[in-house]
């Protein structure tokens, strides 16, 4: 006889709240404190180092929270903002596919761009 494990909605909500309260929100608060702006609004972005701080914060958070079968890479091109690439391997070869999600860790002159 196969037993089906039921989802406990209360435990699930508590787990989600815990992750947001203890991991995601504190990291977002630290990210917002970094005065990182788009190169369009801050021509000296490379020398200021804010982009590197934002990248380091995102990279460390990713390393702590990514799935076991994932790899993380930082790709750089001279004069361009860095790219944080997270490669998550599929479990079934016959069902493998590729998905790309792009975001940047820049802020516009007047606020955040997400």
Summarize the structure.
The protein is of the alpha+beta class and 114 residues long. It contains 3 helices and 4 strands.
Fold blueprint:
Layout: H1 9-33, H2 45-48, H3 50-65, E1 70-75, E2 83-88, E3 107-108, E4 111-112
Antiparallel strand pairs: 1-2, 3-4
Average the pLDDT over all residues and give the rounded result: 83
**Structural class of the secondary structure composition?**
alpha+beta
Number of domains: 1
Unreliable stretches (pLDDT < 50, length at least 5) are: none
Major sheet details: 2 strands, antiparallel
H/E element order: HHHEEEE
| Bulk shape | flat
The radius of gyration computed from the alpha-carbon positions, rounded to a whole number of angstroms, is: 18 Å
Helical region count?
Answer: 3
Quantity of strands, as a count = 4
Distance N terminus to C terminus?
48 Å
Strand content: 5-15%
Strand order of the largest sheet: 1-2
Helical residues, percent = 25-40%
Quaternary structure annotation: single chain
Structure write-up:
The structure is a single chain. With 114 residues, the chain is α+β, with helices and mostly antiparallel strands. The protein has one domain. It has helices at 9-33, 45-48, 50-65, and strands at 70-75, 83-88, 107-108, 111-112. The strands form two sheets. Strands 1-2 form a two-stranded antiparallel sheet. Helix 1 packs antiparallel against helix 3 (50-65). The longest helix has 25 residues, at 9-33. It is flat and about 55 Å long.
